[in-house]
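Milestone 3.1: sequence recovery, worked example.
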């Protein structure tokens, strides 16, 4: 995969790190379609309030096409801006977390099944798993040695499910944090001449990070990832707000505009009106959890 996709694929993998699963033989219901392109793009990437998404969008946009839907997962191709593809697979298998087996995905969970094995509502099942499992650590790859980089770190996670979306929410706080962790978000990303703009402070305090991840409740498809960091940076005794905002989401084409009907020139008791269409808004968020084996 070209380096330009690292930020899109990398952020998703970091924020979406998940697990493996082997469900019992039964019908699996997928809401996504094969041979259809799903486009994901960077909507916002702001540092210190300055949005750089337009400069990065072309190299961070990717299209996903599910090539095969299986009883225990799916195969899919990833296309970048040049049309190059990489084939991947996500499987759902039984994973032992503490002393209980859970059906969880390994690989990038671009879509969750609606039903799988004996689980009739997987989105509800997955939300309950996130809510009930207290000892999972989010961003396991990124924050593997978090105690070496933070002071008084804590995290809370919860989910909500309604008729529209499954939303996963995470809030993290640290009194102090070393920039090594934040730098990991941008490791390997080729930003060309913009590299000097993304300077991570070395001393950060009052660190707050919220992440919301959203899946469509009807199709199970990933919709939106929102990441927000609010903190204070220090340099030679002076402080400044250090803020990061990232939004990565499914592209939804705008609704077609209706042609304007000319107003009749003759007098009419009921002149033709001009059709209007409400704009489409996509809101959401979702992050994925990495399993802990037999802790």
């Amino acid at each position: 995969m070209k380096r330009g996709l690292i930020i899109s694929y990398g952020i998703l993998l970091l924020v979406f790190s998940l697990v493996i699963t082997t469900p019992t033989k039964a019908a699996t219901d997928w809401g996504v379609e094969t041979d259809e392109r799903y486009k994901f793009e960077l909507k916002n990437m702001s540092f210190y309030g300055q949005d750089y998404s337009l400069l990065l969008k072309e190299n961070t946009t990717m299209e996903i096409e599910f090539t095969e839907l299986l009883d225990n997962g799916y195969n899919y191709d990833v296309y970048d801006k040049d049309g190059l593809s990489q084939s991947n697979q996500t499987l759902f298998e039984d994973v032992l977390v503490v002393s209980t087996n859970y059906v969880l995905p390994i690989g990038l969970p671009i879509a969750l099944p609606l039903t799988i094995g004996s689980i009739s509502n997987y989105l509800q099942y997955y939300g309950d798993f996130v809510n009930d499992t207290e000892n999972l650590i989010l961003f396991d790859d990124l924050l593997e040695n978090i105690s070496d980089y933070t002071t008084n770190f804590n995290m809370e996670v919860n989910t909500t499910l309604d008729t529209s979306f499954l939303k996963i929410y995470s809030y993290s706080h640290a009194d102090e944090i070393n920039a090594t962790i934040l730098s990991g978000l941008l490791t390997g990303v080729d930003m060309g001449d913009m590299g000097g703009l993304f300077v991570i402070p070395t001393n950060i305090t009052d660190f707050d990070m919220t992440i919301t991840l959203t899946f469509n409740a009807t199709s199970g498809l990933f919709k939106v990832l929102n990441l927000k960091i609010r903190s204070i940076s220090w340099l030679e005794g002076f402080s400044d707000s250090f803020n990061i905002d990232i939004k990565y989401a499914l592209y939804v084409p705008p609704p077609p505009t209706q042609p304007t009907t000319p107003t009749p020139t003759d007098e009419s008791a009921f002149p033709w009106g001009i059709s209007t269409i409400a704009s489409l808004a996509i809101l959401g968020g979702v992050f994925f959890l990495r399993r802990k084996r037999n802790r």
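The radius of gyration is 22 Å. Residues 17-25, 186-195, 263-295 have pLDDT under 50 and may be disordered.
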